[in-house]
Amino acid sequence: MNQDQEHLKLLSIFHYVAAGMLALVACIPFLHFFMGLALATGAFDSGNTEARPVGFVIMLVALGFIFLGWTLAALMVFAGRSLAGRKRYTFCLIMGGVECLFMPVGTVLGVFTIIVLVRDSVKELFRSG
Q: Can you tell me the distance from the alpha carbon of 30 to that of 107, in angstroms, rounded to the nearest whole number?
C-alpha cells in the first residue's frame, strides 16, 4: 500500500513537470502568430495586398495551437492534482491515454500512469479517498 502511495505521488509530480514542458512548447507558435501579424498589418508591404488574408489565417492557426497546448497542459496539471488527492479515477485514466500521444515524455508518463492505475490496490486507494 505504501508503494502505491509513493507511485501516485511521483506520478503527480511528473504530471506537473510534463505539463510545464507542454505549456512551454505550446508557446512556439507565437513566432508564427507574430509573423502572421506582420503580414496582416502590411509590415512587409511590397505593394502586394494578397498576403494580408494569409496573415490572418496564420494568426488564427497559431492561436489555435497555443490554445490547444495550454488547455492540455492545464488538464495535465488537474490530473496531477487528482492523482495526489486520489480523486477522479476515470479522468486520470483517460488523461493517461491522452498523454500517450505526446512522444516521448508523454508516452512514457501515460503508460506508467495506466500501469499504476489499473492495480486493484490503487483502485482501492481512490475509493477510500
A: 25
pLDDT in tens, the chain (129 residues): 688 889 999 999 999 999 999 999 999 999 999 999 988 887 777 666 666 788 899 999 999 999 999 999 999 999 999 999 999 999 999 999 999 998 888 999 999 999 999 999 999 988 887
| Contact yes or no for 86/76 (Cβ under 8 A) | no
- Measured CA to CA in angstroms, residue 106 lies from 16, 53, 59, 121 at distances of 12, 36, 27, 24
Cell (9 digits) for 10:
511521483
Which set of grid coordinates corresponds to residue 28? 512556439
Count of Cβ atoms closer than 10 Å to residue 84 Cβ: 15
- What is Dmax (Cα atoms) for the chain? 71
- What does pTM read for this prediction? 0.86
Q: Looking up cell 490503487, which residue turns up?
A: 122
